[in-house]
## 1
Amino acid sequence: MSGINQSLSLIAWLLIGSAPAFSEDRSLRIGETQNISGDGTMVVCHYPKDSGKPIDLLVHFHGMASVATANFEKLNWNGALVVINFKGLSAAYAKPFREDSALLESVLEQAAKTVGPETTCRSLTVSSFSAGYGAVREILKTPKFFERIDALIAADSMYASLEKDRETRQPLETQMRDYLRFAKLASEGKKTFIITHSSQETPYASTTETANALLQALDINLEQSAQPSTAPLKLSTKAIKEKFTVFGYDGISGEDHLHHLHHIHLWWSHSRS
């Protein structure tokens, strides 16, 4: 896609979003909270007419289910949303998926069962906000799940430790390795990877620093953005190559960080454009 067409596509997306075809019954069913792996919880939301059909499944890590559900309802997708939360920070999300490499498979099976008998997963999108990246980073280490994930969205949600004994701050390579592999495939149009970041500084590698590390590794230029912002988000930079996209936003407060969750439908939608 040419730069002009990319810009027009982004403007259209920012202004009106995407509107895929949908089934007649648009009454979203919000399931009961289910327990997974210790203190983890999952909530499955779906449309009843999707039962027994191949569905597009969106698995999201971290954030109130009510907020995620409200965002999902704006998409007009045929499919289901799974919202997963653990009590604690990124380590609380990483531990269960590190200790049980089949945990995601169990989540997918339970989600399909909740939607209805004989329901299967047609496509898989995984997204995270804030500390949810801990789960994603572990999941990407399992080859079959790395291959199975079609789209990845990190909404102000890609942090890392810092390399030791370096003159400049650099995200720890071992923690960025699989994100880089996924980003490379997305830059070749083989997967979809969307990253957003605020401008918060952190003692560890921030979402800005990790995003820039991927861009540098892939030799992708970061540009000052002329795209319209979506209040209260203020877009300041962007970088696009095929299906790999990085959106940089102003804002250094906790509230600015939370905007990336409360407006996550923007990037969920963009992952399908």
## 2
Amino acid sequence: MPLSIQKLANRLTFRQLQVFKAVYDLKSYSKAGNLLGLTQPAVSSQVRHLEQALGMPMFEYVGRKLYCTAAGEEMAACVRSVFGELADMQNRLAALEGRVAGDLRLVAVSTAQYVVPYLLGSFLELNPQVNISVAVVNRATALERLNENSDDLIIMGMVPQGRPLTSLPFLDNELIPVAAAGHPLLEQETVTAEEFLNNKLLTREPGSGSRLALEVYCQQHQLKIDPIMELGSNDAVKHAVLAGLGVAVVPKLSVLSELALGTLAALEIPGFPLRRSWCVVYPQRRHPTPVMKAFVDYVQQNIAQFELLFRRLAA
């Protein structure tokens, strides 16, 4: 090891790297202190010692806002690599002992938030040393994070085609046409898809999975989509329908309570429900960690049980 590197290693500590990462992530000395249980002067001191060791400033203030310098960005990439390697080592050591342990970062598209909790219960009972974080995002953000490879696994429907992705379908996602109780369409013996779509259609924003599924259906049947309102979440669509603003096509799992109470009703329309699959997805180039592999194996081994569970919930 070159002497200069040896000297640098002697002057750096993991605590300095931990404090740097907290300041970098939170863009605040005080918030970093609160996170780590340190005073703001203690945080500043750790960063100052790091800067002295490297000979360059890591952060700078512009006005009252804290920014990372170019040197700080280089340091951030290095720190992510160091802590990432430590996390991987912990996972590998746990695997040598026959245990599954470590962090699992899941991203779920917003329509999958009704599914994910049912996947996690038994898995965590089997693997109590796994720490799971779940970020719920829209489809566009999920695709961005998939491209960035910043998470372990993505749970989504409508997996993009033509990309090098590993995908495991595990559960049907039924999209059903709904209207509020008392809607005139519910009094008709038969309702066509065209009639339904022309009764003040409410949809998710362009690019969402449920919107895309409806667009594909309409394209296949030469039908036109002309929504009167676009909303940013399934809950917003559901409440808009409940308020009598129009009709919508929504994931069945998102409206089970309203269907049971009778405040919403599903319409019988030829071609519906639309059926897609929930999938666990990750880039093919990514080597699965032991925790990732354990979760994917668990999902694959329990597909039949998930189908039975959600069939009972939807009954």
